[in-house]
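Supplementary Text 2. Reproducibility record for the structural model of the 354-residue chain.

All settings were left at their defaults, and a single model was retained for analysis rather than an ensemble. We include the record here because the model underlies the residue-level annotations in Supplementary Table 4.
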Amino acid sequence: MELSDLGYDRWFQEKREQLRRPDCGVARITRGDRDRYLVRNELTEVQAELTGRMLFSAESSQDLPCVGDWVLVQYHNDGAFAIVHDLIPRRTYLRRKAAGKDVEYQMIAANIDFGLIVQACAERLNLRSLERYLVMVNEGHIDPIILLSKSDLVSEDDLEKRIAEIGLARGGSRVIPVSSVTEGGLDMLEQSLTRGKTYCLLGPSGVGKTTVLNRLLGEEVFDTNPVREKDGRGRHTTARRQLTVLVNGALLVDTPGLRELGMIAVGESIEESFSEFHRLAGGCRFNDCTHTTEDGCAILMAIETGEASLERYQSYMKLKKESDFHQLSYIQRRKKDKQFGRMIKSVKKQIRKK
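Retained model, structure tokens:
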């Protein structure tokens, strides 16, 4: 195996050279568990820890490695253990607002080429959830592929309707219906995965991500939980994010189901994901139109005539409001953190003078 088989290419090599650390080797983070990691190079996979400098100089969790990152390491104990000294800049990323009340980013994975967004074929496809995942992958400059799992639970006509609904939410995205029962679509999915490219399984809890992963691995590596009769969904079984090399040479990151998918400062991604409203906004009478009550709002007129979807408009406005609100809170928090940091430095300086 070579580093290129793990996704390393000229872009990363150029970024690595800019860090000027010839004393370090290159490895990729394959698993992260708090401050403990697994790193893999072309020869081996070993446990690793960060240097104290990396830990204490990090201004936020975004400055620390996550699954999929390329890092500079030094090996110890005859290559059985590694120390991570630096982080190679990311080409793409997946992040969300951290769960709960804290307004902070949480990194999910990095250097992902394609996001495999898994949605279950239920009685009613959750398009609002899908739209959130599409905004997230768009923000990180990742190409989406949508997997409709458990396709055996609906008729062919209903399946076509769901695919058409997804087309409205994200025209042009590839949609692959799959079923672990009939194995329909799984061969097509395997054939679409390219050697050396990194894919990330995304989706709510219980939509069948682990079942898809086991099929792609060719064996039952990860446990799956039984499906609930009331809604045809299982409980999520993945406990941590990890990167695995598949039999065909593609790389796959499995993630736990995300119960919350909050947004911070993703305005451009929202405009891209809801491109019809971005296009319509150009025809509004006022440049600062809020698309809520103004006369001459092209978006509101399109909704009245049926040219635009009311449900997508409501989702669009909700995501924009959420993103703007959390962005403001995030900026205020960062400002307070910097003020606190300056105060600490000032106190230390005064103590040294004494």
